UniProtKB/TrEMBL annotation:
Protein known as: Cytosine deaminase
Species: Plastoroseomonas arctica
UniProt KW keywords: Hydrolase
Stored InterPro entries: Amidohydro_3, Metal-dep_hydrolase_composite, Metal_Hydrolase, Metallo-hydrolase_Enzymes
Gene Ontology biological process: cytosine catabolic process
Domain of life assignment: Bacteria
Gene3D superfamilies: Metal-dependent hydrolases, Urease, subunit C, domain 1
């Protein structure tokens, strides 16, 4: 198949493919019990020119019923913090340990160190088939925004390969006073989203302090004055007092906020009383809030106690959000840092682990959109994450035919097409990071 793709030129058919019907434009053909439709895809000059029922094309590259997915969109990452695990482990594996270890490591960052790790992460994501990423950038020290300078360089360097967006990340109280204004101005100049975590400096996600609402209104006002979207880390704990999501939705409604709002994690909602959770979800739907779920990181950190088996999965109420019409995305979050010791910026892994963790099957339904079209809309990328006529032929081809086959192997033999051309990129070697994070003993 790969040899045929290399010889296909700029105009050819992909024959006998399967694709999730929820990411496809109009095409005739039955939908199987996995939610897959069988089709032929015409590619001309880097774009999708036609979608037709399987058997329409009589020549082209045969996929033998293998799956085709649109290029992936990873809407919540931490590329400036990635891959520091070899030099800065999380001694306890919990959220407090992650904050302490990451803070200690950040004190010694240089731009060269950030750039080496950041670029390594982009190369891994690119080889795996990701075409757009939003990364949160450490923003505690707005007077020396190293991560933002690195981001600007890499965004330009990677233009045309990965669409790269940024969001700030800092505790909510950091947005008060002059530093808060400076940070909001930096975000606006960069074309980023204004982001924060719903905890105060030195704290964790627990009961909201008395000053929470005035600080939240100030945060919204900073965004409104600059026309910024919001991207928030919310209620990342199993504490029933962590109820910021409801206050964010109420604040957005009261203020008539016009921008996009994306809230990540929202773990505490799954330990709230049922009536409170239902009301919070209703408010999120009314306010137009999107939810982005990071199951691998949350399962790693949440409900971790030494010598005790975790009692809950640490994730939010995804099925209830989806049923209420709230857009739900899946993302990779942290990779090989104190918040998650593993990960490779691979959205196939994210989708597979999310399915197992969150029961995104029986039926599969619309969940394939959660790693493409849904996060793309949250990022303002209206045409990304879909297989439709006129879209760029940025596709991921897999030998797996059914969802059982897809979910049973890492799909390490996938083929990535960018603008209809086979991508020869491979994930970078771990050894390339040894000069900045250290080699194994």
């Amino acid at each position: 198949m790969r040899q045929a793709l290399r010889q296909a030129g700029s105009r050819f058919w992909l024959r006998d493919a399967r694709a999730p019907v929820v990411v496809c434009g109009p095409v005739q053909g039955p939908r199987d019990e996995d939610g897959l439709v069988r089709l032929d895809i015409r590619i001309e000059d880097g774009r999708i020119a036609a979608l037709a029922p399987a058997g329409t094309a009589h020549e082209g590259v045969r996929l033998d019923g293998g799956q085709v997915w649109p290029g992936f969109v990873d809407g919540h990452t931490h590329l400036d913090k990635g891959h520091i695990w070899p030099r800065r482990r999380n001694p306890t594996g919990d959220f407090a340990g992650a904050i302490a270890a990451a803070t200690q490591d950040r004190a010694a960052w240089t731009e060269a160190d950030i750039e080496a790790r950041f670029d390594w992460g982009l190369r891994a994501a690119y080889a795996h088939g990701t075409m757009a990423i939003r990364t949160h950038l450490e923003s505690d020290d707005v007077r020396n925004p190293q991560s933002w300078r690195v981001f600007a360089r890499l965004r330009d360097r990677w233009a045309g390969r990965i669409t790269l967006q940024a969001s700030s990340i800092a505790p909510l109280d950091r947005f008060a006073g002059e530093d808060g204004t400076m940070l909001a101005d930096l975000v606006a100049r960069t074309g980023a989203a204004l982001g924060m975590v719903t905890r105060l400096t030195g704290g964790v996600h627990e009961a909201l302090p008395a000053e929470f609402q005035p600080m939240l209104d100030n945060f919204f006002a900073l965004a409104e004055a600059r026309g910024l979207d919001l991207d928030l880390h919310v209620d990342e704990s199993g504490e029933s007092g962590a109820r910021a999501l409801r206050e964010i939705a109420l604040t957005a409604l009261r203020r008539g906020f016009k921008g996009r709002i994306q809230c990540g994690h929202c773990c505490a909602l799954s330990v709230q009383p049922e009536a409170f959770a239902v009301e919070t979800i209703r408010l999120c739907a009314e306010a137009g809030i999107g939810i982005i779920v990071l199951p691998m990181c949350n399962m790693y950190l949440q409900d971790r106690r030494a010598g005790r088996t975790p009692r809950w999965r640490g994730v939010t109420l995804v099925h209830e959000f989806e049923a209420a019409g709230v857009p739900v995305s899946l993302a990779s979050d942290n990779c090989r840092d104190p918040f998650y010791a593993y990960g490779d910026h691979d959205m196939v892994e994210v989708y597979c682990e999310s399915t197992r963790t969150l029961h995104l099957d029986h039926p599969v339904d619309a969940w394939p959109r959660a790693v493409g079209a849904t996060p793309a809309r949250a990022m303002g990328l209206e045409k990304a994450g879909l297989i439709e006529v006129g879209a760029a032929a940025d596709l991921v081809l897999m030998r797996a035919r059914t969802m059982s086959e897809f979910l049973s192997r890492p799909q390490g033999d996938r083929t990535v097409l960018r603008a209809g051309r086979i991508l020869d990129a491979v994930p970078p070697d771990w050894r390339e990071l040894d000069p900045v994070v250290g080699a194994p003993p």
